[in-house]
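Narrative progress, year one. The postdoctoral researcher (J.K.) led the effort to move from monomer predictions toward full complexes, under supervision of the PI. The following entry was the first complex the group processed end to end, covering 522 residues in total.
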Amino acid sequence: MPPEVVKRQTANIERFLWAGDADARDLSLNGFLPAPRYTTMGRPSTLSSRVQQAPSIDPLAATAVAVSLEVDPLIRLTGGHGAIRRFKVLQQFECIVTDVLEDAVVAELIDLTDSSRPNEIAEIPLSDIPSSDHTLLTPGCVFYWILGFETSVGGQRNRVSEIRVRRTPKWSENDIEAIEAEGQELFKQFAGTQDKTS
Amino acid sequence: MVVDSCLNEEQTKPIAIEYLESLGVDVSKQVRLVLVTHWHDDHIRGVAALLREASAARFACSAAVKKPAFFSILAANKRINIVGGNSGVSEFADILSVKTTGPDHWVNEGMLLYSSASSYQVRVHALSPSAQTVTDAMVGFARTKPNISKEIQPFPNVTPNDESIVLLVETKDIHLLLGGDLQRGANSQRGWQAVVASAVRPRLRSCGYKVAHHGADNGDLDAIWTDLNEKNPHALLTPYAGGPKPRPADDDITRLRTKTNRIYCTVWPIKQTPAGRVVERTMNDVARQRRAIPHRPGHIRLRAPLTGKVQQIVVDLFNNARRV
């Protein structure tokens, strides 16, 4: 079956750079598709720390079954040379870890699909999070939880839950020096005065 | 005086402004003091907006944050733009954009924050943080601030909450104890243990107590009820849904019921709007437990004449607030 051009929205596509994730640097369909910009609870919420405009699309050369795709955020569409996954996203959450337990994390879930729903707190077992991400789990870190249906090549539909921890770069020496210097300046500016008694 | 802040149901306005305006208070002139007990995000949201409106108000915060390491955290936070919303650190930075010369009061135990000039006796005393806590705060901030081995992430709330301010509001016959998020304390020089042991604390007992740390057992001490409160005080609870265990938990309520039978809670657990059958099944397969964080804040109001007696206190409950 000849490969077909995969249709993809090019306008307003945001790209992620996932530090350390070599696959994601390949910004064709071997990586993660970007997520749309959204608003949560009236606050602007961004999913990317660095954003670039999308390049033009190259047709797929693989012999995989091509599909007409909508923007499916944060889902790895192929593991390499296999068939493209057909994934329908039903729900997505942006999750902030509040506590790390022995075998689970507790996180606040922000509903990216329906901002009218209240945020939730959920306790998620570590067994449901890729083991390669476990060392990244600390209070304050962010992960994404995507739920939906995956359709196999044979047409079988399965419920799928995928969790992906956001990778961020580490503070550099220059960052730390600049932060310490600015911290000292702020301290002098705001804390250098005596208490103003009434 | 406004102590701590959260946002209204639409998350657009500090709830204190909404409430005071409904009473006909001129926020720009009549609010004299805005105090944050500590910088955790569930206590500080909206304070910057409040200070913009309350232009005559002084701003007070814990002396424990008067440390270069805390200001390094503020500097680092400006460089983080990962998650939407506003953390406690971001809010504190916003406050400093309003209060450009810094806080008016760096609060520690023994400070008299307000004394009325009129014939009505009203005084506001700070009972914490203790001197030892202020000295030791550096350790907590040093653990939190960025270093080369750490990833760039939002800053978690620093625990324990020993740096929280506790206030005693004194009137002629009615006194109120506002417990913030203060925890028990590891020894007699920290936390509630230090408050009880303090030599400079006014020896007054309160009839209304804003229960510390959302009713959690680590914010409780028998001496709070025997030494700082009258028998059977009005106990006001503000729940916290985050963390591994929501507070107050059932065992917290059981414990508090042995101290007083007048317990009021601002917010009750709510049922989450289902996300769709398939999603709910999948989420329940994965998550061990889930709970919704209520949007709609409840409201407990205690009212009495300024020269009134304890028996004259009237308790009103609004929105989601209930008596336990």
